[in-house]
Amino acid sequence: MALHRRVQEHESDAELEINPVYVQEVSCEIPRFRISQRGVLPRTALQVVRDELILDGNARLNLATFVTTWMEPEAELLMAECSSKNMIDKDEYPQTAELEKRCVNILSALWHAPSGSDAPGCSTTGSSEACMLGGMALLWRWRARQGADGRAEHPAGRPNLVMGTNVQVCWEKFCRYWGVEPRYVPMERGRLHLRGPQAAGQCDENTIGVVAIMGSTMDGSYEPVLEISHALDELQAARGLDVPIHVDGASGGFVAPFLQPDLVWDFRVPRVASINTSGHKYGLVYPGVGWIVWRDSAALPDDLVFNVNYLGGQMPTFSLNFSRPGAQVAAQYYNFLRLGFEGYRAVHQACQDIAMHLSSSIAKLGPFELLTDGSELPVFAFKLHDDVTGYSVFDLSERLRMRGWQVPAYTFPAALEDTAVLRIVIRNGFSMDLANLLLDDLRLHLRVLEHHPQAQLPPEFQAKRVSFSH
Ligand SMILES: Cc1ncc(COP(=O)(O)O)c(C=O)c1O
């Protein structure tokens, strides 16, 4: 949600014009920034709002977002039927609550929760909320440890969370909102994400946990959860610090079980306390659903869970919001049922084939260096070779937009701020044909830029042009 500020009434464009062809109503008023005195007919309202929204981008050409932009008509129908259901009202909608429970079960099995564990979990509005909940559980457990050490009255210091600078902004938010010190491990040439020794090197007795990302928003690469865990085991052996891991599997939580089933990153790693994912990314549901699962009840402190009875029945909840749409949860269950393991694998495999075809073709174009190739998430990042001058990745991103392609260009975080990249996210619905059309356009725009180089912009301006979406 963007933060909006009040627009004052005297602005010249305070009212919307409406096209008389659409409208049978005479002299209806459509103010932009305040509520009208009288309403309008449904068709008029529909037409006016639709007209404005045609200016939004074309989702099929959006290679910036990880979020689902296509679902099949049956899923859309189901979502429309469920759009009035409130997820929190588990007494009124017990079957929606049942579907949520089944989805948590399916995910905990896909992520190898230990047998016999109750693996508590829930749906959320997305990974950001799920990460907040995961972070809070780590913070509460650290506080409890302080108490157990008899240090609650005299806390040893501020709690901290260890992660790479490549984390998604939700972790920065978590730290700021809950007064936790973010301990960032900078990126460096040849190491674009967190590794074991660097993670362990930042930990001390006030570390609430380490965040490992599957995979990085910056370039789609997976952080080596097992290696990080081994480094933390060594730390524990040397200094007695027992630091849990939260895996941010916003994208990879729904990819790795299907495409890299032998990669050990989930609850098979004993130090992994919790895992989140976005149902609305590679879970293939329209925006509005995330998931979090804890290894067992011990990983989720009791006093974070609220029991409310005023909707009828006893309902344990752990969430930041109260009311939330139920349609996405129904759609998530629909996808599990509709696709099954093989279906999810096939969809993600198709995305990966296209990502790897595109990345290898882009590498052959000449001016680019691949930083990742789409073999982990179907996502890859590439930069211009250091000796390419006269235009930047920002120029290329802008030119691609002329044809509707959204390919974000941005600079990496600390300490690689001087590295500017383009990133391509391949999602369900982006075909091999579209990939080849994109390649044709890339070739064309490269020729244009090579023959008509852009004026070199000062670095401060380039930083302002960062266009980054997820
Ligand atoms: C690694 C990672 N974590 C968290 C998030 C936030 O996810 P959501 O948009 O579902 O809140 C993202 C979004 O791109 C992400 O890539």
Could you characterize what this model shows?
With 470 residues, the chain is α/β, with parallel strands linked by helices. The chain has a domain at 78-335: Type I PLP-dependent aspartate aminotransferase-like (Major domain) (Aspartate Aminotransferase, domain 2, 3-Layer(aba) Sandwich), CATH 3.40.640.10. 36% of the residues lie in helices and 13% in strands. The protein contains twelve helices and 13 strands. It has helices at 42-53, 73-82, 94-110, 127-148, 169-177, 196-202, 225-239, 256-259, 327-364, 393-401, 432-451, 459-464, and strands at residues 121-124, 160-164, 181-185, 207-213, 245-248, 272-278, 290-294, 306-308, 315-317, 368-370, 379-384, 409-411, 420-425. Strand 4 (207-213), helix 7 and strand 5 (245-248) form a beta-alpha-beta unit. It is globular, with a radius of gyration of 24 Å. Mean pLDDT is 90; it is low at 463-469. Bound molecules: pyridoxal-5'-phosphate (PLP). Pyridoxal-5'-phosphate binds next to helix 4. Pyridoxal-5'-phosphate binds at residues 66, 126-128, 131, 168, 170, 213, 217, 248, 250-251, 278, 290, 470.
> Which small molecules are bound?
pyridoxal-5'-phosphate
3D shape: globular
Integer average pLDDT: 90
Uncertain runs are 463-469
Q: What name does CATH use for the topology of one domain?
A: Aspartate Aminotransferase, domain 2
Look at the helices and sheets and give the structural class: alpha/beta
The CA-CA distance between the termini, in Å, is: 13 Å
The CATH architecture of one domain = 3-Layer(aba) Sandwich
CATH class of one domain: Alpha Beta
Question: What order do the SSEs take from the amino end to the carboxyl end, as H and E?
Answer: HHHEHEHEHEHEHEEEEHEEHEEHH
